[in-house]
Design a protein that fits this description.
The protein has no helices and 36 strands. By secondary structure, it is an all-beta fold. The strands form four sheets. It has a 17-stranded parallel beta sheet that branches. The N and C termini lie far apart (about 70 Å). The model is unreliable at about 1-10 (pLDDT under 50).
């Protein structure tokens, strides 16, 4: 069965429940609610749009069932709430392209019934909530996350963490808050721009570059950065800890994180000025190697050696480090 716009314009209906395996093309406009019940049913959205003006819900009881995205340009726009339930592990090829655009709340009430790499975009105009019963790389997860809601989107998880296979974008005055979260995509950039605001009360980790600009603000408990963190002159980053795994952050005038920790091996080959309260190399084997360059820190510097190959290393005769505050060197091994 194919549901499409055909020769008569958009397919429009009040409410829709799927009890087969149709394929939708063009515009399928559901004026009310949309539901895919348990029982092995599926709707595949091709090169087109499924518009649900009410609420969306599905219960996945077979791996390849439920809503399926069959084209890179597939769009599922849900004006109301979106609820995902189920009792099985969703096939990872079912929802791996296309985009969801959600205006209401979203709930994932299952362990593994949503394993999506499609983009999830939150576009409401009143406060939205997104809740996972169990989130993580071996549990339920989503693709890239885009937040456009200026009234705020709050993400919560009962166990595990909010887990994304892609990147995060908080745009144009949008507001997002979360607990523990991981955005593990290794390509693209995590963007906070246009006076956006992001807060995290747990650990939030990013697998690719992070850009904070255009009066946007991050307030984090722990931010774990695998690659670049670039804060523009009008960007703001505050919180307790920023952990850098491969680079030093590029900081603007409003970087007030209490402790920026080097937890990976980082090599500096060009002069870099760090405006920050404290730079440290904590226990765990982090290493900062300075070659023919000068690294200046406006605040304090501290290191705690537990590995003879870690800590601060000068790799060139012209290597130089300038510390504006106190310098503390501790450890339990010879460097």
């Amino acid at each position: 069965v194919v549901l499409d716009n055909g020769a008569y314009g958009s397919g429009r209906m009040d409410n829709l429940a799927i009890v087969g395996s149709p394929f939708a093309e063009g515009l399928l406009d559901v004026l009310g609610d949309f539901h895919i019940p348990s029982g092995g049913y599926r709707l595949t959205v091709g090169d087109g749009t499924l518009r649900v003006r009410g609420d969306f819900s599905q219960e996945v009881t077979e791996q390849t069932r439920g809503l399926s995205m069959g084209h890179a340009d597939a769009l599922v726009q849900i004006d109301g709430d979106a609820t995902f339930t189920g009792s099985v592990l969703q096939n990872v090829n079912t929802v791996n392209v296309g985009r969801f655009r959600i205006g209401g709340d979203m709930r994932v009430d299952c362990d593994t019934c949503v394993r999506a790499t499609s983009t999830f975009e939150f576009t409401g105009t009143t406060p939205q909530s997104v809740h996972f019963t169990h989130g993580g790389g071996s549990a339920s997860y989503v693709g890239s996350v885009v937040v456009r809601n200026r009234a705020g989107v709050t993400f919560t998880v009962d166990s595990g963490a909010l887990y994304s296979r892609g990147t995060l974008s908080v745009l144009d005055g949008a507001v997002m808050s979360t607990e523990d979260a991981a955005f593990v995509g290794t390509t693209g950039t995590n963007r906070f721009t246009g006076n956006a605001a992001f807060t995290s009360t747990g650990t939030v980790s990013f697998g690719s570059d992070i850009a904070v600009d255009d009066s946007s603000a991050l307030d984090v408990d722990v931010l774990d950065a695998a690659r670049e963190l670039v804060v523009s002159s009008d960007g703001r980053v505050a919180g307790n800890f920023v952990d850098m795994r491969s680079r030093l952050p590029v900081t603007g005038d409003h970087y007030t994180v209490a402790d920026t920790r080097i937890i990976g091996w980082t090599t500096i080959t060009e002069d870099q000025a760090l405006v920050m309260p404290r730079l440290s190399i904590p226990q765990g084997g982090g290493r900062l190697t300075i070659q023919d360059a000068t690294v200046s820190v406006t605040g304090d510097f501290a290191q705690e050696l537990v590995s003879p190959t870690g800590g601060l290393v000068f790799g060139h005769a012209n290597a130089r480090m300038e510390i504006g505050g106190d310098a503390t060197f501790g450890g339990v091994v010879y460097q």
